[in-house]
Design brief:
Layout (H helix, E strand, L loop, with lengths): L3 E6 L5 H8 L5 E7 L3 H10 L7 E3 L2 H7 L5 E4 L6 H10 L3 E4 L7 H14 L3 E3 L7 H11 L6 E9 L14 H18 L3 E9 L11 E8 L4 E7 L12 E6 L2 E5 L5 E6 L10 E5 L10 H15 L7 H20 L3 E2 L2
Parallel strand pairs: 1-2, 1-4, 2-3, 4-5, 5-6, 7-10
Antiparallel strand pairs: 7-11, 8-9, 8-15, 9-10, 11-12, 12-13, 13-14
Helix pairs in contact: 4-5, 5-9, 7-9
């Protein structure tokens, strides 16, 4: 008998990636599919060879009522529906895991956390960027004091992404739907929480988005580190990786990562002097973090946490700190002023 009785909510976009993983697990049984477009859910039954008895719904509360055996809801809906999906799941006695962002607004995110606390159920959010060899290698190098005390961290994200669909109509598409990944990476690298942000958000010439698809933000962290973010989802040419270009500067030197295979550091030579102090370059070998990277690495962590009855690394309580950076950046851009995050 399967350990996890799952309702999948949302059968578009990233749901395909989730289903490719879920259907490989012997401890998962898909008991229901829920989508506001019934035909799309029906297509999933055929596409993933689910049993014909798999129930289909267009309302999550009806789905949970009709499938009382459900103990896990997988949320692949659009951001505006996340609060409804995950709180309905937890109030019905099921755990929830799902796509980022955890909620469209701070009030919604805090309500999700409140429901998790009240019900004792868990809600973990996809943050696949920290399950990459580069990110784990950086974290280990910094823990061994490679750079000494950190002073600043910078990231660049420039990709011309022609999605179509709901993203084209979002007001804060870059910050809310994508920068949350990068902000989560920044917290993972810095190892502290932000205390303030100043952000300028804009929609440049040539943009195919309704809302702001570009932004520049400066965050101050509680340990004194300053993090700056530059990003655009409507930048054609010279694309960065999805994981960003990173520059991490400490008292001993600088570490650079292109988001892919190129990860190195330059460390100042001991005892050297001069107008610019010479540095030794170190090529950092990527850690072996196993076969599952990115999405599958995060999937594994979410399910292992449920099995081991512990919070996942990307549990909603932890995820909220990155979401608070998102909400603060949007607020700062809206009012044109520095915003506190504490």
């Amino acid at each position: 008998m399967a350990r996890f009785k799952v309702i999948l909510a949302g059968c578009g976009g990233m749901a395909n990636t989730w289903m490719n993983y879920l259907t490989k697990r012997e401890d998962v049984e898909i008991v229901g599919l829920c989508d506001i477009i019934i035909e799309r859910a029906s297509e999933f039954v055929k596409k993933f060879n689910l049993p014909e008895k798999t129930k289909i719904f267009d309302d999550i509360k009806n789905a949970l009522s009709a499938c009382p055996e459900t103990n896990l809801v997988v949320d692949c809906t659009t951001p505006d529906a996340h609060e409804l999906i995950v709180t309905s799941a937890m109030n019905a006695g099921a755990d929830a895991i799902g796509e980022k962002p955890m909620a469209e607004t701070r009030a919604q995110a805090l309500n999700e956390i409140a429901v998790a606390n009240k019900t004792g159920r868990s809600y973990a959010v996809m943050q696949n960027r920290i399950y990459l060899p580069g990110m784990r290698t950086i974290r280990k190098a910094l823990s061994k004091n490679l750079l000494g005390r950190l002073g600043s961290v910078s990231s660049d994200f420039f990709i011309g992404a022609h999605f179509g669909g709901f993203r084209d109509l979002m007001d804060n598409v870059l910050i809310l739907d994508m920068a949350v990944h990068t902000f989560y990476q920044a917290r993972f690298i810095i190892g502290a929480n932000p205390v303030s942000v100043y952000c300028h958000e804009f929609n440049p010439a040539g943009s195919w988005y309704k809302g702001n698809a570009s932004a520049i933000a400066i965050f101050e962290f509680e340990n004194g580190v300053v993090y700056d973010y530059r990003g655009s989802w409507c930048s054609e040419g010279y694309n960065t990786s999805w994981e960003c270009d990173w520059r991490i500067i400490g008292e001993k030197g600088t570490l650079k990562w292109d988001g892919g295979a190129n990860l190195s550091a330059q460390i100042k030579q001991n005892g050297a002097s001069g107008f610019t102090i010479p540095c030794d370059e170190i090529k950092l070998d990527m850690l072996d973090i196993g076969a599952h990277h990115g999405h599958e690495g995060c999937f594994d962590e979410m399910f292992n946490a449920l099995i081991e009855k512990r919070p996942a690394e990307t549990d909603c309580h932890e995820n909220y700190f990155a979401m608070n950076m998102v909400y603060g950046a949007i607020e700062s851009a809206k009012y044109g002023k520095k915003v506190g995050l504490v």
